[in-house]
Amino acid sequence: MSAQPNEKVQVIASGDRTILPEGTRMIPVYIMGKKYLLPETLTIQKAIEYAGYQFIRACGCRGGICGACPTVWRVKGDYQLHFGLACQTVIEEEMVLAQLPFFPANKAVYDLEQLQATGEAIASLYPEVMKCVGCNTCTRACPMDIDVMEYINAAMRGDVARTARVSFDCIQCGLCSARCPAQIAHYHVAQLCRRLYGRYVLPRAEHLASRVDEIQAGKYDGFLEELTRMDEDQLRKLYVEREVEPLDSEGWEPGDKRYL
Ligand code: SF4
Ligand code: SF4
Question: Which of 142, 163, 165, 166 to probe ligand 2 with, by most ligand atoms within 8 A of CB?
Fold first, then answer.
């Protein structure tokens, strides 16, 4: 791969790849440093596929939830780096793309049962949290618009609950960690806090515990065996006809508002 984007243009024969709306412009985009002309309406993910690449990694739910497709790009002539999810971002003219399917952030190994929901637990497993310099680069890099610096500051104060709540929408894409001058593994810190919060701070869900007991006692074994023998049509019918708890007037399931 060359250091500079390759100016030789690869023109993709559209035809059988996708049906484009009339008037769709083909715009130049750089993938792996190579220039392609691609339909302006496509997301980064679809544009890369249109150009002929197949995703083995760096692609998951295609709906902005799984965090598998973080992408870094620069637009030629603009000094700024931009960040986003390939499945959620529409291509722009002269984008120079780099996929980031995995970021090698430090991930601590721990036994949740041996920890407590305290600042000491965070500081012992992720001492680099204390090196935050307050630059807010992590927040600017986050495609989920999470106030990342705020949850890191809460972790520095030992506020497990706030770290868990502010980071709740984190999809573990790693873009914040890729930019942090203090080398903090934000999303792993956040996950530790959400685990501690769920294990030690939130009230125990008694109905869930009794359901787990029922499962372990074999109450559903027969039904599961029956399910594995069904064909697709039978499974679909069963799914459509399943019993669903009614939502309240605001669209919430019973009990969902407890933790707001
Ligand atoms: S990028 Fe790192 S150093 Fe900067 S505010 Fe975020 S956590 Fe702190
Ligand atoms: S907090 Fe970091 S890892 Fe989580 S979604 Fe935002 S940028 Fe991605």
Answer: 142
Q: Which ligand is nearest to the CA of 183?
A: 1
Q: What is the CATH number of the domain that holds 15?
A: 3.10.20
For residue 82, the tally of other CB atoms under 10 A from its CB is 15
Burial of 216-234, coded b for 16+ CB within 10 Å and e otherwise, reads eeeeeeeeeeeeeeeeeee
- Asked if 161 contacts 197 with a C-beta cutoff of 8 angstroms, the reply is yes
152 C-beta closer than 6 A to ligand 1 = yes
Low pLDDT (below 70) residues in the chain: 1-18, 253-260
* 227 in the same domain as 197: no
Render pLDDT for 112-129 as a digit per residue (tens, 0 to 9): 999 999 999 999 999 999
In a domain? residue 254: no
User: Token digits for 189?
Assistant: 């810190």
Over residues 147-175, the pLDDT tens digits come to 999 999 999 999 999 999 999 999 999 99
Q: What do you get for the CA distance between the two ends of the chain, in Å?
A: 49
Give the per-residue pLDDT at 3: 44
pTM: 0.79
Whose Cα sits closest to atom 6 in ligand 2?
142
Number of domains in the chain: 3
